[in-house]
Design goal:
The chain starts with a strand and ends in a 9-residue tail after the last strand. By secondary structure, the protein is α+β, with helices and mostly antiparallel strands.
Length: 215
C-alpha cells in the first residue's frame, strides 16, 4: 500500500478458474479503495490460472526466466574479473539513468530501479561508466537478484562474479531474475551452472485511468 502496489497473491491448487476470477475482482476493488495504482503478479507460463487473471483484465507486460544457483566454495573463492560492490547514495543518479535507458518507458512506473534503495550492487568500467547494477532482496531461504546490465557486456563472468560477490551469502540459494526486455542476459546466463529454471509471465492490472490534461 505504501508504494502503491500489491506484490504477492496465492491460491489453493483446488480452486477453479471462476473462483479465482471472483477473488481477483474482489482484490481489485479492495486495492482501489486503498489507493493502489496497480497490481502485479508473477505466474508460471503454464499455470491453469492464467485464464482467470486475463478475465480479471490482467495483461502480460514482460516475461522472466528465474534461475536458481547454490554457490559452491570454489566459486566463492575464485578471483573475480568484475568487481561488483554495494551501491551508495552517490550511485543513484547513474542507476536511474541506466534504468531509463534499458527498461521500456511504458513500464518504468511499475518496474522501479530498486525496491529497497539501501541494498544492491553496482559495476563500473575503468572509465567510471556504470556497466550494470543489481537489485537484491534477502530472505531466510534465499537471495533474489535482479540485474540491469548494458548490452555491451558480453562476458558470462559478469553474472558469475555478481553471484560470487553477494554480501552475507551464508550459502543460501541465489535466484537470478532475467527479464525478457534484456535478451542479451539470457545468452550470458546459459553459461552459468544453475540447477533449476522457471519461466514466468509478469502481469499487471492498472487501477487508474490515464487522461491527458493541459500543461
Amino acid at each position: 500500500k505504501a508504494h502503491g502496489q500489491l506484490t504477492y497473491f496465492a491460491t489453493s491448487p483446488n480452486c477453479e478458474v471462476g473462483q479465482v476470477t471472483c477473488l481477483l475482482e474482489h482484490l481489485i476493488q479492495m486495492s482501489g479503495n486503498w489507493g493502489a495504482r496497480y497490481l502485479l503478479a508473477d505466474l508460471a507460463e503454464d499455470s491453469e490460472f492464467l485464464l482467470a487473471f486475463r478475465q480479471a483484465d490482467f495483461n502480460v507486460w514482460s516475461r522472466q526466466k528465474l534461475l536458481r544457483f547454490v554457490p559452491r566454495s570454489e566459486d566463492l573463492a575464485t578471483e573475480h574479473r568484475y568487481h561488483w560492490r554495494p551501491w551508495s547514495s552517490q550511485d543513484m543518479k547513474a542507476i536511474s539513468t541506466l534504468h531509463r535507458s534499458l527498461v521500456p518507458k511504458l513500464f518504468q512506473s511499475i518496474e522501479p530501479p530498486t525496491r529497497r534503495a539501501a541494498l544492491g550492487m553496482v559495476l563500473y568500467d575503468i572509465d567510471d561508466n556504470l556497466l550494470g547494477y543489481a537489485d537484491l532482496a534477502y530472505g531466510p531461504h534465499g537471495i533474489w537478484v535482479q540485474p540491469v546490465i548494458t548490452p555491451q557486456s558480453g562476458d558470462a563472468h559478469i553474472l558469475h562474479d555478481l553471484i560470487g560477490s553477494l554480501p552475507d551469502n551464508l550459502r543460501r540459494p541465489v535466484y537470478l531474475s532475467i527479464r525478457s526486455y534484456q535478451p542479451w542476459l539470457e545468452s550470458l546466463a546459459d553459461d552459468l551452472p544453475f540447477d533449476q529454471q522457471a519461466e514466468l509471465a509478469l502481469l499487471v492490472r492498472y487501477l487508474v485511468l490515464q487522461e491527458k490534461v493541459p500543461e
